[in-house]
TrEMBL record:
A GO biological-process term: methylation
Domain DNA methylase adenine-specific span(s) in chain numbering: 178-277
Protein's organism: Kibdelosporangium philippinense
Keywords assigned: Methyltransferase, Transferase
Molecular function as annotated in GO: methyltransferase activity
Official protein name in the record: SAM-dependent methyltransferase
Length: 315
């Protein structure tokens, strides 16, 4: 298994600032219930805690907020650089602290991976909207619930490769009737593992799931590849789903599970759309847009301070 990066979702150059945020809070008394040793049971425990905190405080069918809270926490490692338990520090965060952290994480992710911005948008858009004090404190309550259920012992360690926490949270949050109507019953991990072993995926191939959900089959394939010494980051992962939140979760999962950058995901109908071409076109368009923005920024920086001509000032 590969070693844990310090912040699973963050590029290296963005990690220094995160440590400052972590260290800025006073340490709270240790809260250390022992998490279940079975990783699937642990994921369920976190999902139940998140659902209870969210429905208890907000009570709405809106799922982007709790899912994005869990996704944001997935960026934090279990321990800081001195070996201190990050749960102790993060559980004392105010809603403003949590939002500062969330904005910093997702800004860094988007700067590093502009091509996945549209995929992440349904999950993280609300984080960049004008502050809604009540919503922010409810999101913070969800964060504390996930931390108390020891999320960082799962997503902040190599255990994150072994389960689909976001898929579990989405399933627990959604009413059973909605799951049934959408056919959203994700393949159990043991079956996914069996399918992955039978597929025997080699490096540099494409792996496609036209009804990808939160990407559980991709996780299983990556797991098997690592077991036999192959690198899943060499794979092109191609996935589609009509559920935009599931695709957003699959995108976050691709970072949590270290699937690499060759992600071709699409929100749409896999039965009728030319979805793969649409996914590739969107990815290219966003990469191009990000490159243009970088170029324009450099150009504006050059022009900044350049003396304004009289003719320009008049127009
Ligand atoms: C049974 S789940 C399987 C998810 C994933 N492949 C797995 O094995 O865990 C089926 C998924 O198909 C999606 N789905 C249903 N109809 C679809 C369609 N026409 N196009 C794309 N996705 C669809 C649902 O939203 C759901 O996430």
């Amino acid at each position: 298994m590969t070693a844990s990066p310090r912040f699973a979702l963050l590029p290296k150059q963005s990690q220094k600032g995160v440590r400052v945020v972590m260290a800025a809070r006073k340490k709270a008394p240790a809260v250390r219930p022992v998490p279940p040793t079975d990783v699937g049971a642990h994921a369920h425990k976190i999902a139940e805690a998140v659902a209870k905190a969210w429905h208890g405080s907000y009570g709405s069918g809106r799922l982007d907020v709790p899912l994005s809270v869990v996704s944001t926490l997935a960026a934090a490692p279990q321990n800081d650089s001195h070996g201190n338990d990050n749960t102790d520090a993060m559980i004392t965060w105010s809603p403003d602290d949590f939002f500062a952290f969330a904005r910093m994480i997702w800004r860094a992710v988007i700067q590093e991976r502009p091509e996945i911005t549209a995929l992440l948008y349904p999950l993280i858009a609300w984080i960049f909207e004008d502050a809604d004090t009540e919503l922010n404190s409810q999101a913070c309550a969800v964060s504390r619930a996930a931390l108390r259920a020891r999320q960082l012992d799962l997503t902040g360690t190599d255990r994150r490769f072994d389960t689909d926490l976001l898929g579990t949270v989405l399933t627990v949050l959604r009413p059973a009737s909605a799951l049934k109507a959408r056919g959203q019953f994700y393949t159990p991990a043991c079956i996914a593992a069996l399918l992955a072993r039978m597929s025997d995926v080699e490096e540099h191939q494409a792996v496609e799931d036209p009804m990808v959900g939160t990407g559980g089959l991709f996780r299983a394939v990556a797991h098997v590849m690592r077991d036999v010494g192959r690198d899943p980051r060499t794979i092109q992962w191609v996935g589609c789903d009509i559920d935009e939140l599931a695709v957003a979760c699959a995108t976050v999962n691709s970072m949590i599970w270290g699937l690499g950058r060759d992600i071709v995901f699409h929100v749409g109908d896999a039965l009728t759309d030319d979805w793969k071409a649409a996914a590739l076109a969107q990815r290219d368009k966003l990469s191009q847009l990000a490159a243009d923005i970088t170029r324009y920024r450099a150009l504006f920086a050059l022009l900044d301070g350049y003396p304004v001509r009289d003719s320009d000032a008049r127009t």
